[in-house]
Design goal:
Blueprint lengths: L2 H15 L3 H18 L1 H12 L8 H25 L2 H29 L7 H26 L3 H27 L18 E5 L9 E5 L2 E8 L2 E6 L13 E3 L2 E3 L6 E3 L5 E3 L8 E7 L2 E6 L13 E3 L5 E3 L3
Antiparallel strand pairs: 1-10, 2-3, 3-4, 4-9, 5-6, 6-7, 7-8, 9-10, 11-12
Helix pairs in contact: 2-3, 2-6, 3-5, 4-5, 4-7, 5-6, 6-7
This protein binds FE2/S2 (inorganic) cluster.
């Protein structure tokens, strides 16, 4: 068994068998989410920034690049300073360690915010990732402090321990994404309805009641409000939650699993933890049949924040719901 395989198996074993660890991790994640939701719209807006909603991509892995990059480069300049006795290399190392340590604060905040909406079956792994990185941050903070007081050797030792822990933590972070699919889009890869596709007799769709239909195995959420019919993917992009079971309010659907909110008209993310918009469809009624067609860039332009809905001829209209 290779070293990574053994480490992975040991982490799984710990999470599954250490009494109460998984449940406590899930509970902590839920409490953080409750605290965010309790702050209302303001709390959710701050969480959205930390999730990365505005950039359509999780923020945490972007920030980790700065932190890991600075700490790793700092170690490189430490080595250079040791080999060449160069004061400028030592100064560069000190500055990079400080930069990495300061950037670790927003990085950790973004990670904790993502943890609040983590899949239940990955909460234990997410907690270990966070604990290891917190200890690494402590070591780097001590290193930064000692370097500032001209205690370079102890500063070097602290950052070396921190670097080892950081590597473990980063490896686990990669595992969360690659193996456990945390933070990746769960939108189905297969795309359907390239052209107008009949899906349901119009009489079968009740107003103000979300309905799930499938085209070639791809679930789609239909929602009729006033005269208009909205259609977006029924699979939540965050972790695959069933949007047709979500609650509908103000032209948006809230996912029943971790509370992401999507606009029913154009699928854009109103609130995270999701950062990726839902595919959406134009709809029309022809000869008593609802037809839909996948929206693509250039097909029908309108401002992303508008509350427009698609009419039966596929034009954008003001939402009258
Ligand atoms: S699956 Fe997490 S918010 Fe929908």
């Amino acid at each position: 068994m290779s070293l990574p395989q053994r480490f992975r198996a040991q982490v799984d074993e710990f999470v599954d068998n250490y009494p109460g660890f998984k449940e406590t991790s899930q509970d902590v994640a839920r409490r953080i989410q409750d605290a965010i939701f309790a702050k209302g719209e303001q709390g959710r807006n701050v969480a959205d920034i930390l999730h990365g909603k505005q950039i359509g991509h999780p923020l945490h892995p972007i920030l980790t690049d700065i932190t890991i990059g600075s700490w790793t480069l700092g170690a490189f300049f430490d080595l250079l300073a040791f080999l060449t006795r160069s004061p400028s290399s030592r100064k560069a190392a000190d500055r990079l360690i400080a930069l990495g340590t300061l950037s670790a604060i927003p990085t950790a905040l973004a990670g904790i915010t993502d943890f609040s909406g983590i899949k239940q079956d990955s909460a234990g792994h997410g907690a270990i990732h966070g604990i290891i990185n917190s200890v690494a941050l402590f070591f780097f903070w001590r290193s930064m402090r000692n370097r500032a007081r001209n205690r370079h050797f102890s500063g070097f030792l602290y950052s070396t321990f921190g670097l080892g822990l950081m590597t473990l933590g980063a490896w686990l972070g990669g595992e969360l994404v690659m193996s456990r699919r945390v933070g990746v889009s769960h939108i189905p890869e297969k795309q359907v309805a390239d052209d107008w596709t009949p899906i349901l007799p119009a009489a079968d769709l009740k107003a103000n009641k979300p309905q799930r239909i499938e085209i070639d195995g791809q679930p789609i959420l239909l929602y009729k409000h006033a005269k208009h019919i909205s259609a977006i993917s029924a699979v939540c992009s965050h972790a695959g939650g069933p949007l047709e079971e979500g609650s509908i309010r103000d032209g948006c659907v809230q996912c029943p699993w971790h509370g992401s909110v999507f606009n029913l008209t154009d699928g854009h993310v109103v609130h995270g933890p999701a950062t990726v918009e839902e595919p959406h469809y134009l709809t029309r009624v022809t000869d008593g049949q609802i037809e839909l067609r996948r929206w693509r860039l250039g097909m029908d332009e309108y401002p992303i924040e508008s509350s427009a809905v698609h009419s039966q001829n596929g034009q954008a209209l003001k939402d009258q719901a």
